[in-house]
Please model this.
Amino acid sequence: MVQNISHAVMAQRHEGKDSLDDFPTPPWATRALLEYVIKNENISKMSCLEPACNRGYMSKVLDEYFSKVESSDIHDYGFGNVKNFLDDTYEKKSFDWVITNPPFRLAEEFLNKATGVATTGVALLARTVFLESVGRYERIFQNNPPACFAQFTERVPMVKGRLDKKASTATGYAWFVWKLNEKQNLKLMWVPPCRKILEKDEDYDKTSDLKKNKLTNHKDFIQRNLCDGLI
Ligand SMILES: C[S@@+](CC[C@H](N)C(=O)[O-])C[C@H]1O[C@@H](n2cnc3c(N)ncnc32)[C@H](O)[C@@H]1O
Model:
């Protein structure tokens, strides 16, 4: 059998069962939720919890739109509070919205917990395939379908442990949005191409670029000297 080692396929997310799923979210993908999917929701007066905040890339964007954002994560990445969202740490109905991209293997548990903590809505960024499976149909979608399923038309590249503007991926993503006060028919929509409009230079951490450059320079140095027969 020939193994497919194309960069995009290799970039698919496969994480171990105990993995924290340390995949920071490109900020433009969160702006897309606020600009195209839950726009006109009066959110500038509302509160939001980001319970898997990682290094804060989603929280910082939520802060551009909501009046108050609280952030936490089970692991200390140097941003937000350190809390296990699946423990009894958060009071019921204590935020208007809960918005995050949970670890894929815990997405159902996050959804159940979030619908108890939020009063208005829950939005989860997840792989498109979250929509599949008999188990999830029976446990979630049959009786509690989202109000909106918003499929990204562009790829949303997520790289382990860092943001990388140049990364690629073969994995499709969508926003799954539940409205808690309204009984609605599921709305299927597409997030239009928007990365160019919503991405900002300052979204990307200059220090990680510097580190990458240093690494690249180091690799270049080794390559050059190997070629020259010096090492
Ligand atoms: C895909 S990342 C989230 C990225 C983040 N939202 C961002 O803006 O970049 C998933 C995160 O879930 C966190 N996590 C895993 N299990 C958790 C739990 N039980 N409670 C809270 N956070 C958890 C991981 O540490 C990881 O940071």
